[in-house]
Amino acid sequence: MPEAVAAPSREPSHGYQLRVVQEVLLALLAKEPSHGYQLRARLQLALGPLAEVLNAGHVYVTLNRLEKAGLVTSERVGQADRPDRKVYELTAAGRERVMDWLADTSWPKPAPAEFHLKLVAAAAAGLGDPVRIVDAQRHELLEGLGAVQRAALAEPEGSVAGLLLEGVVLRLQADLRWLEACAQHWTSKKGR
Amino acid sequence: MMQAINSQVHGGPVVRTRGLEKHFGQGPGLVRALDGVDLEVARGETVAVMGPSGCGKSTLLHLLGGLERPSAGEVWLEGRRIDRLSERSLARLRRHAVGFVFQAFHLMEELTAVENVELPALLAGRSPRAARRRAMELLDQVGLTDRAEHLPSALSGGERQRVAIARALSNEPLVVFADEPTGNLDSGATRDVLRLLDRLRAGGQTLVIVTHDSRIAATADRLVSMRDGVFVEETKLTHGTSRHLGELAGLEG
C-alpha cells in the first residue's frame, strides 16, 4: 500500500514512546553500568506524571536493540533470592553516539506550518471557516494546557519533572498566542 | 428579605447581565466599550474573560462589581438588580457581597498585610477581634502567616497579590472579580496565584477573571472571548483526562 494514503495511526493504549529513548538510555549508562529496572526508574523520575503514559516494556526492548547494535554489552549477575539480572555497560561506540546526541542542535518540529496551511487551504477552498478551525484548535490546546498545568502545580518545588511540565506550559502559551493572531487575521478577512 | 444579599441562597445564576452596554464620550467620538453583553455565571463557576486590550473586558468587570454604571442594560447579582441602586446601597454591596482583585494589587501601603486583609471586615461592621481572627485564617490559607505584620513594600509581588486575594475573601463574597491578577507577576509568583485560584475554584468560590494569561484561562470552567465590546466565542473546559499529556510533551504515540 502506498504510504502517502495511510492516515497517521495512533494507538495510545499501547503507551507512548520516547523518540530519543536509545540516546537517553545510553547517556544514563555513561557514568556507570546499570540494569533495566534502575534505568526505568531514572527515566520515570525525570518524566514525573508523564512517565505513566510510557510503554513499560519499551526500556527492555530498547536495551536489547542497543546490545545487538554493539552500543552496549551486558553481563548476567546472579542475585540471592531472585532471578539473575542483566547489567548493561556502554561500549566505545555507544559513548560516541551519546556525545553526538548531546552536540546535536536539531529541535522538535513545531506545529505552525501544518496548521497555517490548513487555514489557508480551508479559506481558499471555501470548505470551512478558518476562524471556526482556530476556535476548535484553541479549545483543544486550552484543555491540554489545563491538564499540564494541574500536573505542574502538583509537582513539589524544585522537581525535575516540574521543569519539563513548565516547558510544555510555555510552548502551549506561545501556540495559544499565535492562534489569537490567526483568529484576528481570519476574522478581518471575513469582514471584507 | 430580598435585601439580605449574601445571607440567602438563591437558585439562579449569581451574576447575570442582559443587553449590557457602556459608552464613553459622545457624538462622533462615541466609544461603545460594551455593546450588548449577556452573561450568566452559575454558583461555584469560574468564568475567564479573554480578549485583546481595549476589547471591553475590564469595563465589564467594573459594571458587574458595581464600580461603574451601565449606559444601557441590566446587571443582576444573586437575583437582585443592582444597576439602579443608590450610591449608598451600591457602596454597601461592594463592601459586603463582592470581592475585587486587581493587577496592581491596590493594597494600602501604610497598613500591614493583616490590617489590609481585615479592613473589609471592619468596614462591614465586624468586631476588631472577629475581623483579626478571620484575617489571620485567610493569611494562613494563602500561605502568608509569617508575613502578617509586614508592610506591602516589604512583600514580593506574588505575596502582595496573595494578600489582595485574602482581602477579597474577607467578607465571604458571593463572587470574586479579578482583573489581570497575574499581569504584574513573574512565573514563580504566577504559579502561586494559579494554585490559589485553583483551590478557590475547587472550594466552590464563584469567580469571574478578566485575563490575558492563557494559564488562568485554562483553569476556568468556562472561557468567554471578547472583541470590540461583544462576546465572540464561548467554550466550556472539561478538566477531564490527561490523554494528551505525553503527546504535548513530545512523546510519540
Question: Key features?
Answer:
heterodimer; A: 192 residues; mainly alpha; Arc Repressor Mutant, subunit A; three-stranded antiparallel sheet; 7 helices; 3 strands; B: 253 residues; alpha/beta; six-stranded mixed sheet; four-stranded antiparallel sheet; 10 strands
Task: Present the secondary structure layout.
The complex is a heterodimer of chains A (192) and B (253).
Chain A: H1 21-29, E1 34-35, H2 36-47, H3 58-68, E2 72-77, E3 85-90, H4 92-103, H5 112-125, H6 130-154, H7 160-191
Antiparallel strand pairs in A: 1-3, 2-3
Chain B: E1 15-24, E2 31-41, E3 46-50, H1 57-64, E4 72-77, E5 80-81, H2 87-96, E6 98-102, H3 113-123, H4 128-141, H5 157-168, E7 175-179, H6 187-202, E8 207-210, H7 214-219, E9 222-227, E10 230-236, H8 245-248
Parallel strand pairs in B: 3-8, 3-9, 6-7, 7-8
Antiparallel strand pairs in B: 1-2, 1-4, 4-5, 9-10
